[in-house]
Specification:
0% strand, mainly alpha, MFS_dom, 21 helices
Length: 442
Amino acid sequence: MSTTRAREHAPDSHEQESLQTPQMRRILASSFLGSAIEFYDFMLYASASALVFSPVFFANLEPALATVASFGTLAAGYVARPLGGIVFGHFGDKLGRKGVLVVTMLMMGVATALIGLLPTYAQIGAAAPMLLIVLRIVQGFAVGGEWGGAMLIALEHAPGGRRGFAASFANLGAPAGSILSAGMLGLFSLLPREQFLAWGWRVPFLLSVALVLIGLFVRLKVVESPLFLSFDREAEQRRVPLMQVLTGAPRVLILGVLVAMTQLTISGMASVWGLSYATASGADETGALNAKVASAVALFVMTVVSARLSDRFGRRPVIAVGIVAAAAFAYPLLMLTGSGSTVLFAVAVIVGQGIQGIILGPLAAFLAELFPTAVRFTGASLAFQGASAIGAGFTPMVAGSIVASTGGIGLLGGVWIAVLVLCLGALFLAPEGRERDLATIR
């Protein structure tokens, strides 16, 4: 199949003038709904790791060490995400985007339901945390493939001038899933503490089964990406997408990882570590979970706004505004979080997640526009999930360790700002993709 024919069938050729066609609405709904369900499962674990898993699965440890161990299991899932991105990216680039999306959803649903059924440390001893880690790794592996497929199925169908907004539907699943997971866990946290730890926390995990069935019904109706169908797959048949990315585009991969790390460190700091630090400092547990729900709404709104702005002004300037705002708010966020006040923690996490949304909105399109069609699934997934492993996976554990060893937030704030400055430099070294033709990127 010739390059000319590939161009003729690419979304940038204006075959689609709008996102309002029935097919595009179905695609965007599938991208959003599937991603929301996946991130409901994934972020439910994040909230539970801050509030539940220490006494349930690490009861043999001192409270401070149990919290760090609980965050360690959280990190295991994030470490598995790049591996999931590589494996599912390979099949997504070779066989198509749609099939991957069905497999990842099933895998995530099964793992999450099993976590809800897992015996405690008091019942089976050390096997409990070991099984928890295994299931968390399965979760991370699944979401590692989900994000790339959900994002690309929308972006590669969209007209050129709407790619940023279309791709953001996969990212909108994260705050939507966070709203649902925090809301469900917050509801059951109203139970007496003993009942919440005994069985209440399990119900939101088990409800994942119903959500997955709904998501599969929608996802199976989605058609394959036209860019995938039109590019010359025969010429790429013997090539391994991962090796093509590592040898042909190592620079843009590294830059993509650094840029994506910015919003993921905000997530790890404000939403996960911040929740644990705030409640340990005296904030009300249920009130803190409600604040997380409100912050997810802020993240959702700002993601939509910034994605639309990126289609007008470009990905780089919008992301840059978010990174600068994050650096300026780093110390205020840490001080408000450790104040012991539920209201001040709410201010910290809502503003922090709103800033995260500024970066998150254009991020999916920014990463996808770095790579050619033949390796776009692998390249974009590896960049985003690699950043997830570093930025979100280890941030809560590193933050907890720094605060535990220094007794304050001074060093933690300095380290965070330094990371953001490094990532801002990477942003300006990466190419701007708003005007690029996806079919001709090499």
